[in-house]
Amino acid sequence: MSHTAHIRSHRKPRNRSASTIAMRAGVAGGVLSTLAVAGASASANAAEPVTQTLELPTLTADMATQVAQSAEATQQAAANYQLQAERDAAAAKAAKQAKADLAEAKKKEAEAQRKAEAARKKAAAASRSAERTVLSAASSAGTSTSTSTATGSAAAVIAFVKAQLGDAYVSGSTGPNSWDCSGLVQTAFKQIGVSLPRVSQDQSTAGTQVSLSNLQPGDILYWGGAGSAYHVAVYVGDGMFVGAQNPSSGVVEKPLSYDPPTGAVRVL
Asked: Within this chain, do residues 181 and 231 fall inside the same structural domain, yes or no?
């Protein structure tokens, strides 16, 4: 036996029916047809771009009027804001200037008061110096500035003020245990029915002006100018006066040389 002898296969040959072959051919043809149509459609779509139309609202006359009015209102509001800003800026500037002017006015007023007080003190010092000279000359010449004994209403006034010696000095007080200078003088004269003003400035012009070289017991002494006095006391005779001097001294009796007065008035 030859080695190349044909050996018959045991595999059975595939028997394909005509109907099966035809069906498969139809399916293949249908797929190819579908692909062809899809390709053609894609080519057509690629060649012809799609256009979409948007419809915009029509601008009517009413809408145009509203737009114009809105724009005008916006412009007016902006103008109002600008005007208000300008007014605010002007007001702030005016307030700043007014503050500066007020500060300057206060500064000038304080300076004027300082100068006036300095002038007043200088004048008072000069007046005291002059009065010391007068009193000293009168004493050297043996001239008495008063009678030594008070009588009548003057004696009552003097007795009252001496009764208050040692009482406290309290600004604004009119007794019975504390006084200020004009409060003591006013109350002393009130005891004899004489009504005097309350403050030193007015008491210094309440009677007839008299010379310090011709004083009598019961005369009202004052320090400072007549009508602008800052202190008063009662002359009690023998070159002495009684007054509510200050918070540290209270009501005291002192010689005229201790603090020479500027002038005197007589009401009795």
From this structure: yes
- For residue 210, give the nearest of 260, 159, 267, 254 by alpha carbon: 267
pLDDT tens digits, 162-201: 999 999 999 999 999 999 999 999 999 999 999 999 999 9
Alpha-carbon distance of 114 to 120, in angstroms, equals: 10
**Residues 202 and 222 sit within 8 Å (Cβ to Cβ):** no
Q: Residues 152, 251: one domain?
A: yes
Q: Say if residue 253 is in the same domain as residue 151.
A: yes
Put simply, whether the predicted model's pTM sits higher than 0.70 gets the answer no
- The helix (H) or strand (E) run that includes residue 179 is strand 178-179
Nearest to 161 by CA among 246, 266, 253: 253
> Distance (Å, rounded) from C-alpha 216 to C-alpha 145?
7
* Range of the structural domain that residue 240 is part of: 144-266
68-103: b or e for each residue (b if 16 or more CB lie within 10 Å)? eeeeeeeeeeeeeeeeeeeeeeeeeeeeeeeeeeee
Total domains in the chain come to: 2
Kind of pairing between the strands at 231-237 and 220-223: antiparallel
Which residue, of 120, 143, 166, is where some domain finishes?
143
Query: Which amino acid is it at 175?
Result: G
